[in-house]
Amino acid sequence: MNLLSYLPSGIIILNIIFIILLIFFERKDPTATWAWLLILTLIPVLGFILYLFIGLTPKKRNHFLRKQRENDLKELNFGGETGIMDVDNLDFDDLEKSVIRIGLRCEKPSVVGYNKLDIYTNGRDKFADLFKDIDNAEKFIHASYYIIQDDNLGDEFIHRLAQKAAEGVEVRLLYDKMGCRNLSRYSIHKLEDAGGEAVPFAPFVLDINYRNHRKNVVIDGQIGYLGGINVGNEYLGLSSRFGHWRDTHLRIRGESVDSMQYRFLLDWNFASGKDIKRGEYYFPKKEFEGHSPVQIVSSGPDSKETEIKFFFLKMIYEAEKTIFIQTPYFIPDQSILEALQLASRSGVDVRIMIPGHSDHPFVYGANNSFVGQLLEAGARCYSYSRGFLHSKTISVDSRILSVGTTNMDVRSFKLNFEINAFIYDSEIARGYDEIFLKDIEHSREITTEKYKNRGWTMKVRESISRLLSPIL
User: Fold this and answer.
1) Which member of 133, 397, 425, 439 is catalytic?
2) Separation CA 325–CA 319 (nearest Å)
């Protein structure tokens, strides 16, 4: 008998075995498990290949567990960070204390430091200051980016780093292998030939998940940059596809730069295989004395807990007046969605702002699907129409503001390596709320009536995207 006749039966048997194994290994995340079961059932062979590329296989899980154990050991080398660990006897209100304690009691405690802050809402202002700070660097420049494009801005960024390396400044560039897939080897060699170091973050070959989504720059241990703006012409608003690019980024001067440095060195050691230890050289006494309390929090697939999501949840549940959220990807898990629904039904002014168009397939449909559920709960939702909204912020009661790399989606909560700053300064939070309200003037409100009257093609798109949302 022809062996090919057994092929369909063999595929079915192997698929059933794989489904059983999947249920066993993914038992901690039933929503993702059901999404993968759907894919494996509908497209058996292709579904298996997709899982190898983007799923959390046992090999990957063990790899992250090893990274977690290595981070625990390296904490002994780095020592503690500057900042406050005891908030009970300090001048924080009850809301601030309740959120701060989440970080102090997480797997990796995050302290509170005092800083001077600058907030950028566009790439031009951010890179004008960043390039000045790079040019003025005297000791070291540590930069981690998810995307560095091979374009004019990318060339200028690499050129300035290479210049400082040639002057004898320590330059280390950590770039995500997938996000920087368009970055040429010429650019990397240019930096290395000048004396700098460049290392790709690539935990697994041919894997499109588990990306280092952090944008984290530390200069001389005195200045830090953190937020949503990557390196590329589109972030300057020069893309014909996206037009004006609305984003949010921070410049931090003060104690919390140590937390950013600590995070960079852990990531660098993991990606490079080297072991840079803590010392006064990388954690110097701070030249700037600010008054804005900041808590730097990071999370990723190597964490036992979803730390940044915990912070978001606590902020939402403790809100009494307002919750303002900007995110390019609004694909929350059930806990975040229900918290926002409950807040809105309790009388809190919940407002969500998403882009008017998406930069990824399926995301626009998924965004709309979840927005519809919030509209039913009484929340107000807006579609930013001036250009592309890439800002990742959440503000509560004009008292606490979070700015960082974390989107309001499952990918950022569980799959990506992220970093956020939580700012406990009512003046800054109020200032950002004014920016949010100004952005509403460039947005279209998504009313319940408009949502109900959407076309059938959008309804189909939403349904498909919603099924795939746990793995988007």
Assistant:
1) 397
2) 13
Residue 390: active-site member: yes
**Are 201 and 332 part of one and the same domain?**
no
Among 164, 309, 390, 414, the one annotated catalytic: 390
Residue 61 lies in a domain: no
Provide the residue range defining the domain that includes 405: 307-471
> Residue 89 domain-assigned?
no
Number of domains in the chain: 3
Question: 397 catalytic, yes or no?
Answer: yes
Q: Please report, rounded to a whole number, the percentage of residues in the chain having pLDDT higher than 70.
A: 76
- The residue from 220, 247, 267, 409 that is catalytic is 220
Encoding tokens for residue 162? Answer: 């290479």
Cβ-based neighbour number of residue 52 at 10 Å: 14
CB 316 within 8 A of CB 396: yes
Catalytically annotated residue among 213, 249, 286, 309: 213
Catalytic residue among 215, 249, 286, 314: 215
C-alpha 3/C-alpha 35 separation (Å) is 33
Query: Are 18 and 148 in the same domain?
Result: no
Q: Are residues 390 and 444 in the same domain?
A: yes
Residues 340, 271 share a domain: no
pLDDT score of 65 more than 60:
no
CATH (domain of 194): 3.30.870.10
DSSP letter at 89? Answer: T
Q: Give the domain-ending residue among 261, 290, 319.
A: 290
**Residue 331 resides in a domain:** yes
Backbone angles phi, psi at 261, to 5 degrees: -65, -45
Phi then psi for residue 443, to 5 deg, are -130, 165
Q: 320 and 403 share a domain?
A: yes
- Residue 23 pLDDT greater than 60, yes or no: no
| Cβ atoms of 195 and 172 closer than 8 Å | no
Whole-model pTM: value is 0.86
State yes or no: is 409 an active-site residue. Answer: no
Domain-embedded: residue 438: yes
Cα end-to-end span (Å), the chain: 43
Distance CA 97, CA 91 (A): 9
Q: Does the annotation count 425 as an active-site position?
A: no
User: Predicted confidence band at 412 (pLDDT cuts at 50, 70, 90)?
Assistant: very high
Residue ending a domain, among 260, 290, 320, is: 290
The span from the CA of 191 to the CA of 159, in Å, is 8
